[in-house]
Please model this.
Amino acid sequence: MMRFSWTALLAGAFGLALGLAALLLLAVAIIYPSLPSLEALTDYRPKMPLRIYSEEGVLIGEFGEERRAVVHIDKVPAVLRQAVLAAEDERFYSHGGIDTLGILRAAVANLVSGEVREGASTITMQVARNFFLSSERSFRRKINEALLAIKIEHQLSKDEILELYLNHIYLGQRAYGFAAASRIYFGKPLDKITVAEAAMLAGLPKAPSAYNPVVNPARAKVRQLYVLGRMHSLDYIDDATYEQAKAQRLGVRYSPQNYEAVSDHLAEMVRQYMHKRYGDQIYVSGMKVYTTLRAKEQRAAVEAVRLGLVEFNRRHGYIGPEGQLKLPKEAEARDKAIFDTLSDLPEANGLLPAVVLQVAKDTIRIRLRNGEDVELGASEVKFAQAAIAAKKFAPGAIVRAVRLSPDHAWQLTYLPRAEAALVAISPDDGAIRALVGGFDFARNQYNHVAQAWRQPGSSFKPFVYSAALEKGITPATVFDDAPVSVDPALTGGEQWDPKNYDGTMDGPITLRTALYKSKNLVSIRVLQAAGLEFTREYAARFGFDIERLPPYFTMALGASEVTPLQMVSAYAVFASGGHQVKPYFLRRVTDKDGQVLEDYKGIPANTAPPIIDPRNAFIMTSLMQDVVRRGTATAALRLGRSDLAGKTGTTNDHRDAWFSGFNPSRVAVAWVGYDQPRPLGRGETGGVTALPIWMHYMAEALRGQPDAAYAMPDGVVPMRVDPKTGVPDPDGAVEYFMQEFAPGKAGPDRISALAGRGA
Model:
């Protein structure tokens, strides 16, 4: 009887198994033919963002629905492939799409739990799911997934399947594929990642949100250590590499924009151009735009603006913390509270959010978002002393810290309220080499380079002086630096009694001296001598909007409206020897495969007739070189060059600070001001506030370049004159004259009389 029962039981089990097998075969027979075509895999066309590059191919921006970069399997480093296999599918190269051992293990776990808790998905099955199926947890979906995996394995090679996986999988932070994730999380291309970084990335597919190192660094670390352990046990890495990788501190990036060079304002200019020309397809078609930007120079420009506004903050004192966090007493809860708070505060152009942990007599200890504790020295205690004394600066205070370079110590700072901009071009064709439209694009998308109409102050004087040279006035012409009163009819309102910036007057001085000392009273007399309407029309040749150049004598001191982009183009006329230069930023546009759609080559400035006399440009350059050598921009001598020329500019009440300058290969303009114009503060002049930004950029832009001479055009007469009187003197300083206006050629008595008249 017992024997019969065992036989019946075995027969029943066999019959059940046979029936299940038959049902499974029937299901396969029915489902397999209805599986979707694999064209999406064999003809892989992912949504690719618009990518924007510098001239040399450095990524500076992208726009699209997904942040994705497609990399051929041969370009994927072995360490990443190994990390992915260790984390997701160690038997990938030996199974046929379904890992039988993995399925048996998962089946046991699911039967024990009574629900579907483990999936045992292979890499091939994940490809099937990501391309064709939902993430629903059900047995029906798993059957479809398994059958699709088998179909995929029959049509694609293992390397092709792995390549699809590595490029398509979602990894958090809007990143699709490991190449995009590497740039987003670590700010580096895929071929530069370390073993530790590869393990961190390989841990993401299982749960991108849970193991995101930006959002959940602790859980991400646990997952990374698991992947490293698997790599070690599979002999992908040796003992020493394993230990080193476990100990490596990862430099996870927290900014949403992680490019090798940041130029968000220019990238937005490109996006607007591309959308107007090609429409919405730019966000998914993988088009590429190469700009005229130079990555090295752009990085220097961004650093220059950051440095300039951090130093501006230092001069004006500490305004206090951004907020206050109540720190829990228990260490783990405190750490979590700090991280959660800082996670909501974005980095702003290198200014990192931090929480104060301790305030002592000579030190302040803060914690950054990456968990690093930083000690700030006695200088920072002094900087924050007023806030400390007012009990506004204590443990839990939310602050900003910045490290201006690896050689600098950490500094306490705050988000600047003033704005700054810098733009630089090549004077030979107008190619924009650097453009920073504001301190931080995430905080303020307004492009101050192209959109901000501001008064240029004394940085407009060279155009007035250039007009005067056309009228026969020379650098040696003497003007009276004495009081002047301007009739209301010539100011557009009321009587004007202008003053020099420093309040002093030097009496009779030459035009050259007047420019490098930036004498306002002389500039008004120069404008009178040249003629108001002539000067206005002459200045418009440089690209200024004549409607924004007031037909009043206040124009002599820069009471017009210009943009930094106009200023850099105008100063390029002097640098190029009198030729007009039109700034441009596009080099070429290609499709995703590199097929050129648009190609731009700069038009050399010297291919068209000059818009001002080349002799005039040469003499004006000589005058502006003296601004650097002994005038309001002598700080630029620290660059150790003899070929720099330019002019400072400060508007009424110090509302705007400018420096516009050049050498034969680069023209750059720096500006600082508030969006809603108000005084920057006492002493904030073009030479103090804007010039350091210009210098920091030019130091890098001209690094390694020898001094360049300005070629003297035919028709320029060098002659020695007394630098105080402008009278020819064989023992005097060399001065330059247009041939027809050199002493003895023109009527110097007439010009001197004209120069001395009141307005």
In short: The longest helix spans residues 2-31. The two ends are 131 Å apart (CA to CA). Residues 478 and 510 are 4 Å apart (CA to CA).
